[in-house]
Amino acid sequence: MLAVLLAVAACDAVPPPPAPTATALTVTPDTYITAYTWYDNTPEGSPDISHPVLHKKAGGRGTYADPVTIAVGHSLETGQDVLDFPAGTRIYLPDVRRYFIVEDTCGDGPAPEEGPCHADAARHGGASTWLDAWIGGEGEGESFAQRCAEQVTGVRAAVFHPADNFVVAPGDGVIHDGICDSGYGNQLVTASPGSTPPR
Known about the structure:
The protein is α+β, with helices and mostly antiparallel strands.
């Protein structure tokens, strides 16, 4: 009898909610990528960020587990700070072979929606989206950091909600060990099965 009561109770129980579905990987081939450094961040000479998720300050190695900070456009039109992509969104940039995470905003002043990142992407080679990648540079000279930012800038591919198996270039961040580590192109390269997973 007890077994029958338990079976009836189990049938009357509320089913568990469905598991959340993962957001699908999206490749955007026409993303305008710019880069910002220690020297031209707001405030200048700092790694301060507006929407910390994994980091308290701009940074990251570029792995899936420790992605680099990236800034996105935002709008204050509604009186709220609304980001073009939610804080915490992961993005993979094949030209620098690193993962990034939305933790900062691009565009200053009382109407950032009228400026860089939120608007004007199409003015740069017909791009559909504008992202501003943190490349650091505090251990290098300002002119080196600026040259690296120029090297990173262009219309490139970006992968939103990427898998964790894209190849990651060695070194911590885009500027590391005295080099500007970019120029890999737009091809997506994944780690081979059985190989060491990406860092």
